Amino acid sequence: MSRYRGPRLRISRRLGDLPGLTRKTSKKLTPAGEHGQQSRKPSEYSLRLEEKQKLRFNYGLSERQLSKYVKAAKKVPGSTGLILLQILEMRLDNIIFRLGLSPTIPAARQLVNHGHILVNNNKISICSYQCKPSDLIQIQAKNSSQNLVKKYLSFPTLASIPNHLELDTKMLHGKVNAIVEREWVALQMNELLVVEYYSRK
Questions:
Q1: Which residue ranges have biased composition labelled Basic residues (predicted)?
Q2: 98 is in which domain, residue-wise?
Q3: Can you give the pLDDT at residue 1?
Q4: Does residue 119 contact residue 136 with C-beta atoms inside 8 Å?
Q5: What is the mean pLDDT of residues 140-163?
Q6: pTM value?
Q7: Among 25, 27, 103, 122, which has the highest number of CB atoms less than 10 A from its own CB?
Q8: Phi and psi, residue 19, nearest 5°
Q9: Could you tell me the CATH number of the domain that includes residue 119?
Q10: Do 98 and 171 share a structural domain?
């Protein structure tokens, strides 16, 4: 899968705080690029595009993946925007990040790809794996895996673990207790604009 490998700080300057993309902060206040200095009123399309890009870059998705998630969310009864956020929040790489076992979602993805993560005692190497309530997430019993995660835990990124997750820092076990609620989504955005963006395509 193709994923963004360019400068992350430039993206966070343009789109705002993206906790899943990078933990760095820029000293510059204006958006990146030569057009960042202009104070033009943004069009409705550019507002929708910006919200969509926030989701893409924060969760590390390709355009095709995000489009598939939107289509899946539309098939479920209820608010499409909220269901889309819940689908993205319940991805394995995001759950690891929200538990504090990695500093960013790309780092969480690397933990999963390299086989450091067990879900219900089964090794899972698929980042997009959809976690469910009562799933138990563990770190491999190998010293290299444990030491890496302990190093990450000593420098927490997020202020607190959301209430739908719990973490045992001694045993390095995490548990999914429920589906995430909207107020516990760390990303500041308007998900309805994302749904509108795809409905007009």
A1: 1-13
A2: 91-178
A3: 46
A4: yes
A5: 78
A6: 0.84
A7: 103
A8: -60, -30
A9: 3.10.290.10
A10: yes
